Amino acid sequence: TKSPQTYEYIFTMPETACCMFSLFIGNSDNSTTPYDVTISNLMVTEYTSAADMSLTAAELVDDITFGWNLGNTLDTFTDVAVDAPAYYETSASNPITEKHMLDTVKASGINAVRIPVTWFYHMDENNIVDEAWMNRVQEVVDYVIDNDMYCILNVHHDGLEHNWLKASMNNYNTNKEKFETLWRQIAERFQDYDEHLLFEGFNEVTDDNINWTTTSEDGFAAINSYNQLFVDTVRATGGNNTNRCLICNTYATASTESALEQYQLPVDTVENRLIAEVHSYEPYQFCFVEYPDVTT
Questions:
Q1: Could you tell me which of 248, 245, 220, 226 has the C-alpha nearest to residue 235?
Q2: Which of 33, 166, 273, 283 has its CA 20 to 30 A from that of 241?
Q3: What is the largest CA-CA distance in the chain?
Q4: DSSP class per residue in 93-117
């Protein structure tokens, strides 16, 4: 009988792997003899590679070849609050978004998908997002990320016409806490995602008079204030959000030189990680379905 021997082994395995230990000692005649194995002091250490957050805003935008908008799904809303994500996702007659749909998008050559999300019907009186809704948003985001595409996640129709987010300083002072609380939750949920995920602070926010292409100084000031609050809130959550590229919109659909001159890029804690976004529907007849004969 031989005395017990102690061996130390280091194994590298994928996270889904399992293992079985056996010990066979080679003999001089090339045969093997099995031995009982006792495992003690088993230590499992999880190693994860650091998320890549190295691209600047300009480099990331340059890497996007062609984008697609997953509209009229998670951004829809109705006049009735229903505690069922699928009700909203299909209320514009679109099907439930499934992984194979995004696989097809990827196969077509697209490498960036924007996921517009409307949140206000899924927030309680304390501005806390319903867990089922947040989980569903994350599930769809993962469909995009798992296809190695860029994903743009935003706050969408919360700023549409008569909804709560408006371009006025009165609205900002009233709703800044709500806006901050919403973005803190989104940022914290996704703080470990790498640079393939981008946040867009809001969509096309209009003033109290629902002007689309211009507004007053007050309206421009509110847009700049909301953009700064968005950046500050996301950065404060830490993790990969410290260096994440963030998209800051201009006023509604204003694209004139005078309107763009009112835009202020937020002050940031990191350099070259902000993207300015301009929404322009010019020429109007070419952009909208009401004019199907206009093709050039």
A1: 245
A2: 166
A3: 93
A4: SPPPP-HHHHHHHHHTT--EEEE--
Q: Please name the residues in contact with 127: beta carbons below 8 A apart, sequence gap of 6 or more.
A: 177, 178, 181, 182
Nearest to residue 106, comparing CAs of 53, 62, 146, 78?
146
Kindly tell me the sign of the dihedral angle through the C-alpha atoms of 279, 282, 284, 286. negative
Report the candidate in 70, 58, 155 with the shortest Cα–Cα distance to residue 105: 70
Residues 6+ apart with CB under 8 A from 249: 200, 201, 202, 203, 204, 205, 223, 227, 277, 278, 279
Q: How far apart are CA 74 and CA 130, in angstroms?
A: 14
**Are 244 and 198 in contact, with CB atoms under 8 Å apart?**
yes
Alpha carbon distance 140, 70 (integer Å): 10
Amino acid at 230: F
Packed helices 169-189 and 131-145: angle between N→C axes, nearest 10 degrees: 70
* pLDDT tens sequence for the chain (296 residues): 445 554 444 444 444 334 444 444 455 555 555 545 454 444 443 333 457 899 999 999 999 999 999 999 999 987 666 678 898 899 899 999 999 999 999 999 999 999 999 999 999 999 999 999 999 999 999 999 999 999 999 999 999 877 899 999 999 999 999 999 999 999 999 999 999 999 999 999 999 999 999 999 999 999 999 999 999 999 999 999 999 999 999 999 999 999 999 999 999 999 999 999 999 998 888 888 888 899 88
> Would you state the structure tokens that stand for residue 64, as one six-digit string?
């996007």
d(CA 200, CA 34): 61
CA 132 to centroid of chain Cα atoms: 17
- Please check whether residue 53 is in contact with residue 198, taking contact to mean a CB–CB distance below 8 angstroms: no
